[in-house]
Amino acid sequence: xxxxxxxxxxxxxxxxxxxxxxxxxxxxxxxxxxxxxxxxxxxxxxxxxxxxxxxxxxxxxxxxxxxxxxxxxxxxxxxxxxxxxxxxxxxxxxxxxxxxxxxxxxxxxxxxxxxxxxxxxxxxxxxxxxxxxxxxxxxxxxxxxxxxxxxxxxxxxxxxxxxxxxxxxxxxxxxxxxxxxxxxxxxxxxxxxxxxxxxxxxxxxxxxxxxxxxxxxxxxxxxxxxxxxxxxxxxxxxxxxxx
Length: 243
Hints:
Blueprint: H1 6-14, H2 24-28, H3 32-39, H4 50-56, H5 62-79, H6 82-88, H7 92-113, H8 121-128, H9 134-146, H10 150-171, E1 182-184, E2 187-191, H11 195-202, H12 208-212, H13 219-222, H14 226-229, H15 232-237
Helix pairs in contact: 5-7, 5-11, 6-7, 6-10, 7-9, 7-10, 9-10
């Protein structure tokens, strides 16, 4: 049996002293899976202040949330034409791999839109199915991953991009943008030019340092290495990325 104080528990799980203020850099170095572990589940008796700490960590502050959304769109923007471009070169395996990455990126974006922490890979798909977005997005992503050729794969992903773009417009997080995919500079590769949605969100961030930060996102957005994400001390050592 392991006994901890509430501050000791938070320190062990996140590497952060709850006696200190929560800064943007703290949020960006907290892996989502560990935030979920700290805030999920029932507390049946609490006279030590655990629930107060869990409420502080319940979800990202608005500026951090906008930064994560902008960063997630940028991940999509960086690869959205490549499903078609690799397929057009006869590289079906490469096209499938990129499609899978984009499907994962869209799923993470859905978690962010619904203000839910995403779990690690074992439970990721199961948790996604419980999101409101899953009813519409799941068939599109499954079609993309099961498509026998790049044209069908690209078409399914294009529909998913448009669905997510319309979702952002409906949430009113930034000025609405055209949500239809187009050909990539006249070539037969359908893209949203998702960086438009990224920049629109970035412009809404009030914290100047966060607004100017490169759109590589939080640790959970650019690494799935267990040895990093399950090591709070290692995560904290990466604070320099954001300072």
